[in-house]
Amino acid sequence: MSSIFTRVCLPALSAALAILGSSGTPAAAQTLTPVTLRVDVFFYGSHVPLLYGIVSGIYRKHGLDVTAQTGRGSATTIQTVAAGTDQFGFADGGTLVKFAAQGLQAKQIVGILETSPAIILSMPDSGIKSPKDLPGRKGGFGNGSAPEQLFPALLIAAGVDGSSIQRVAVDIPTRDSLFLQKQIDFSFGYTVTQLPLMEEKCACKINVIAYPKYGLNPIANGIIVSTKYANENPDVVKRFAQATAEAIDAAVKSPDKAVDGFFEYAKGTQLSRPVVAKQWEETTKLLHTDATKGKPTGVLDTNDWQKTIDLLVEYAEVPKGTVKPEMVFTNEYLAK
User: Fold this and answer.
1) What CA–CA distances, in Å, run from 12 to 3, 18, 21, 63, 296?
2) Structural domains present in the chain
3) What's this model's pTM, rounded to 2 decimal places?
């Protein structure tokens, strides 16, 4: 019997050990490249395809072991990616332009929020439905976020004199609270974050003034990577970009499954399922601009970036001529 075991069982055991490797884990798993993805803030609906891509195995299929982590704002996320602390980030294009003007080298490689989600919110009984209704009213102005920075441009585009608008300077959580308590007449935010949250809390249909309607459409959030990491790891970056585009397409096709994946990964979230589902639904409306409709998911347009840069030069103190589109985005990693 021992000779039979030697002839039959030992070769099989040796083959099994070869497959498992010395650590006892599948060899295929050992070939996965570990990378971190730092999002902008807490996990919310725009991150649905990213988290779904992790739990569904899409990233693993592309040879990547992805860990997604929450952030503290796009500015911090961009800095950690540039420093090499994180390999990839989900961050705002306008904020990336501002850093590029200061010499930071990173690019957006997959567009997600290609159309701006920036909005002004007002309660249904406020009488505020367009910019012309804002004079004489009181608004909550947070510090430094895109809708507030571009508010002067919105007034100009709408032909509105904003000199009589009362401006209450507050942090963003306080601004949202004042809005819900109707201590301010209007607030700022995004269709993919604040809008579903505020509507759940007030159990009402909030009035929205959308910035893109008035020609103000800066590139918002997408996947960024540092120039240094991309130069040193082009294959990893290409696999991540293409896996992300695949995950977006999968989440668009099967939103319920994708939202399930979100909650499977973001176990500690305080957001309700209806809010996350609505945030993802709003995100799907913004995946393309007029220039990128009909093009593959994630592809970005040079003219869209130039318009973003021009807006920031005029309204956000970006020095003219310091940033060109090719400094802040590329489609090269999405090419098959």
Assistant:
1) 14, 10, 14, 27, 46
2) 32-115+218-334 (3.40.190.10), 118-214 (3.40.190.10)
3) 0.88
